[in-house]
Amino acid sequence: MLSQKTIDIVKSTAPILETHGVDITTYFYKTMFEAHPELLNIFNHANQSQGRQQTALANTVYAAAQYIDQLEVLLPTVKQIAQKHRSLTVKPEHYPIVGEYLLKAIKGVLGDAATDEIIGAWGEAYGVIAQVFIDIEKEMYAEAAEKSGGWEDFKEFIVEKKVTESSLITSFYLKAKDGVSVPWYLPGQYITVRLSIPGQKHLLNRQYSLSQAPGSDSFRISVKREADHNPQGKVSNYLHDRLNVGDTIEASAPAGDFYLEKGEQPVALISGGVGITPMMAMLGSIAENEPNRKTVFVHAARNKDAHAFGEEAGALVEKLNDGKMYIAYEAKKDESEVCDITGYVSRDFLQQVIESNSVCYVCGPISFMRAVVSHLTALGFSKNNIKYEFFGPALALEA
Ligand code: HEM
Questions:
Q1: 105-118: b or e for each residue (b if 16 or more CB lie within 10 Å)?
Q2: What is the ipTM of this complex?
Q3: CB 118, CB 172: distance < 8 Å
């Protein structure tokens, strides 16, 4: 239990953290990786170089400081982060390391303004926050192990099939090397894949949504090729160019809190680009388990060449008793490209095709999600009925 004095100090210094948050977390990562380079086998280096991870951590630390005496308010955020931690095999013994370098970073950036009393209070508060994560992650490890017959960390998979889905997206079907069937997962969840790339000192981890409904004996991930200079593309492009049928790759058990909830409520699946991947799992699951559920599937692609899963999604929608599919191409190459919308998915269009009592799932590039979420909000959809997933560290959409 934190004393009132500690709570007061942490809350009153939280605004300083808001101002210097990204400086502190940037300093934190730099010094922590210098002292513990082994942690570079867990963290995504591209997120570091783009500053997204620093921002995500700074926002969370700031929020935790503000709500230090009512951390239950943050539970949904903590659970989302904990899912990612679990899929990356973050363990209790890592927390003191992060705590040590976070406090050193606060001191390093704030200098004399960070008195011993302030640092002491933050140290205590970190201990409480870390324990919340550790406890939740412990439950998640146990649950994952139970669902998958004891599989807690990474295990090896063989590429069974590699299928080109569009000019940019390729699917990989992964079968467990130990012959055990893949566990049941929630449609929309992701797996973390881990691999060692020649010339790279550390292991590389990336999350990919599972792109087919659960129930098959292999995982399917569908990966977008990125521009060569994009650091986020290092793993994806390696998979495209170098990972072939018969090769081995490591993966951890499915995770994530963006998933289709079963129910009577009409559902809208709205995706842009490679954001279609979790939607394919959701659509497949509706077709299999809830074919009477009213469903609208809206997908935006750059053009026909970049449009993945057109036939597969169409066949799944055909299985529904009340399903509709709409395709938007940002710019058609020529008139032979047939789609429902040319240009962006507009507010008016969403209003026309989505029933106002629907639950909407949104996934795609940040600009796409920002536009769609703002349209849905303006159309009166409540926060509870707009669910979205970021690829990469979660950021505030309003930012
Ligand atoms: C991701 C917060 C402890 C490793 C994240 C994210 C946040 C966060 C906000 C971004 C989540 C997202 O992707 O949306 C925290 C907080 C911690 C903590 C508040 C302490 C209380 C740790 C520890 C480790 C760790 C102890 C292990 C050394 C990671 C990794 C990611 C991550 C590897 C994935 C992001 C990437 O690789 O770029 N954490 N974390 N975290 N965290 Fe933590």
A1: bbbbbbeeebeeeb
A2: 0.98
A3: no
Pick the CATH number of 154-252 from 2.40.340.10, 3.90.550.10, 1.10.3720.10, 2.40.30.10: 2.40.30.10
Q: Answer yes or no: is the C-beta of 202 below 6 A from any ligand 1 atom.
A: no
Degrees to nearest 5, angle at CA 255 with 312 and 66: 125
**What is the C-alpha to C-alpha distance for residues 333 and 382, in angstroms, rounded to an integer?**
37
Q: Regarding the domain delimited by 4-146, which CATH topology (the fold level of the hierarchy) does it fall under?
A: Globin-like (1.10.490)
State the Cα–Cα distance between residues 152 and 252, nearest whole angstrom.
7
pTM to 2 decimals? 0.93
3-class DSSP state of 292:
coil
Q: Which residues contact 277 (CB under 8 A, 6 or more apart)?
A: 208, 209, 210, 211, 221, 222, 363
Residue 185 appears among annotated catalytic residues: no
pLDDT in tens, 341-384: 888 999 999 999 999 999 999 999 999 999 999 999 999 999 99
Class of CATH domain 267-390: alpha beta
Instruction: From 31, 38, 60, 232, give the residue whose CB has the most ligand 1 atoms within 8 Å, as the site to mutate.
Output: 60
Q: Tokens representing 167?
A: 């000019």
Tokens of 89: 């095999």
Beta-bridge partner residues of 194: 205, 250
Residue 61 CB neighbour total at 10 angstroms? 23
Which of 41, 57, 102 for a ligand 1 pocket mutation test, highest count of atoms within 8 Å of Cβ? 57
- Which helix (H) or strand (E) segment is 206 a member of? strand 204-209
Q: Is 206 annotated as a binding residue?
A: yes
Question: Cβ(53) to ligand 1 under 6 A?
Answer: yes
Listed by start position, the domains of the chain span 4-146, 154-252, 267-390
Exposure string of 134-156, with b = 16+ CB inside 10 Å and e = fewer, is bebbeebbeebeeebeebeebee
User: Tokens 């963290």 belong to which residue?
Assistant: 43
pLDDT tens column, 92-116: 999 999 999 999 999 999 899 899 9
Q: Is 283 in the pocket of ligand 1 (CB under 6 A)?
A: no
> Which residue type occupies 337?
E
Q: Does 29 participate in catalysis according to the annotation?
A: no
